[in-house]
Amino acid sequence: MASTVIRASKPAHGAVWSTVPAAAFPPQGRWYWSRTTKEPLTDRMFSSGQVEDLGEKSRKRYNFKNFFGVSRNAALAKTDIEQRLLNMNTAGDTRWPHIIAHADMDAFYASVEQLDNPELRGKPVLVGPRSQRGVVLTASYEARPFGCGSAMSIAEAMRRCPHAVIVPPRFERYTKVSARIMRVFDNFSPRVEPLSLDEAFIDMSGAEDLFGPPAAMGRRIKDAVREATGLNVTIGLASTKHVAKIASALHKPDGLTVVEHAETRAWLAPLAVKRIWGVGPKMEARLHALGLKTIGDLARSDPRTLALQLGQHGTHLHDLANGRDPQQVESSRREWSIGSERTLEQDVSTPEQIEVHLRRAADRVSARLRNKRLHARGVRVKLKTTSFQLHSRQARLDPATELGEVLFRASRNLAAQMIRFGPFRLVGLAAFDLAAVEADTQLDLFAEPPRQNRLETTLDKLNSRFGRDTLKRARDLERNGTVMGTAPTLDFRSSLPPDEEPASDRSLEGEDPGWD
Questions:
Q1: What would be the CATH architecture of the domain defined by 269-321?
Q2: What is the pTM of this model?
């Protein structure tokens, strides 16, 4: 059987660990005690015994002795402990090479609003600005049968579902709930890779002895999230990140899909190529032009031909279609891009109008770069027309920079190349190919910093202390002294490499921005 689809079951507690004195166990490494299952577990729970990778700080996260005081005698009193230790260290070769879970919250923003406001439950909810020119950030599952979805204009969504309830977003609340969800994931594995507020990979490799087979793992995660937050999460489990993500997308909401390692290629084969992570509408059209409509078609194709037609990306897609994905779950992920975009209250068509919004986006992106001690080697501009057509251009930056002035000048030139497609309803800017600012590239503390750097650093401090946009550039103001009308700004970060296309445009729901 290629896959297993399981719906939610009754709630169950997640695992909580407490350190047990080393003398209580044989000297195979560091051991832990599960408060919930009353079972011992080894460092193998933490990715094949590499406990050194955790560091002392991470180990302390799992030390809950002060809360419930598991003692050496309590551990030794477990009558079947020796047999369990033997089983955990003599497992056969039938286990998957890796067990990766992809967790995706269901209509996250809308679900939080329905959780907090019982009157919204069972009703179609659109999270987004009340402005008719705004876009839907998330549509509840009650609204989706009417054709409403994320990134759709509020006006169009209300036309399709006139009785829908529009709820302004509360990002601070979503961030707090997300933190609670990530803490639940941390209880199952120290290797958790957040993709956004509502999505994460969890490396469950080596955890079979504690949680059972993959299907049982998925149920435990789902139940723990529901108990901690009252929200549903869809889980996909597979031996690679790519397949796990596809699996979670196929059975929403509140689904659980397990793809057996040995059946990965057969399971992928009938699916459309657009299901591959990184294949957007443009790449899908190119693959169709080559006669490749399913993942099976892509898997059976000649990799040399794909490389000639699509370059290195073609080779990568061929590997994914055959179930090969070397990517590991990374607790600390590289950010590929940081950006800011806004839907405008009034269309813009002239360079001067567009530059006002590019300037503000550049300032905000540069402030975030400096806050994270990053600089960018590239900048990308995104413009959306009144007919919802997306246009983007990008350029390399040499040397790399974290200055808003440099980002703005480059983005202004890129926007000029697209001005003929206007008028535009959305303007966005992103800095990509990010890298940490190395020590040898930082300014001398005793040297006089360049004027632009000093100016932007001062703006950062003032806006951080007194609130965003405390100081504004004069050119950002209209004659009446108010900022040109915009819908709420969406700041985002992306861990998707810039040469890949996301499978769908869900940027406004918290996924990758999808500008390519």
A1: Orthogonal Bundle (1.10)
A2: 0.62
